[in-house]
Amino acid sequence: MTVDDLEIMSRNGNGEVSPLEFVEHMLLSMNKVDAKLLEELHAQFNILDADGSGGLQMADSDILTRRGLSRILSSRRDGFHDNSSRDDDPSSSVLLREDNSDNSDAESC
After folding, report:
1. How far apart are CA 93 and CA 96, in angstroms?
2. Among residues 46, 42, 66, 63, which one has the least CA distance to residue 54?
3. Is 33 exposed, middle or buried (0-12, 13-18, 19+ CB in 10 A)?
4. Cβ count within 10 A of residue 108
5. CB distance 11 to 21 below 8 Å
6. Are 63 and 69 in contact (CB under 8 A)?
């Protein structure tokens, strides 16, 4: 590995290569992924990082859930319920699931 390699890998120009920068550079150089895919994954992460902290925590799930509920309630107030996903809303591709392992509250039919 040369100094030039380090400069190429260090995207923020600080001269230090993070594990993420190293892995991304290696995947790109081995043609395992393309830059567009990495950009899309970073964008998806940014959507999931709802509080903007730079990491994913349970609080992000809570925020995204509240946003989804707010969107549903808003559409019902407007007099309709739209079950279709919106192509212009990148968060519509985010799937959240709630742990329903305790089914004791489920109503029987």
Report:
1. 10
2. 46
3. middle
4. 3
5. yes
6. no
Which of the four pLDDT bands, split at 50, 70 and 90, describes residue 104?
A: very low
Task: Locate the domains of the chain by residue range.
Answer: 1-33, 35-73
Rg (CA), the chain: 20
Distance CA 17, CA 22 (A): 6
E strands present in 4-104: none
Q: Could you report the per-residue pLDDT of 14-56, keeping only the tens digit for each? A: 878 999 999 999 999 999 999 999 999 999 999 999 999 999 9
Q: Which two tokens stand for residue 16?
A: 């230090």
Distance CA 88, CA 96 (A): 19
3-state SS assignment for residue 3: helix
Q: How far apart are CA 79 and CA 36, in angstroms?
A: 39
Burial class (CB in 10 A: 0-12, 13-18, 19+), 100: exposed
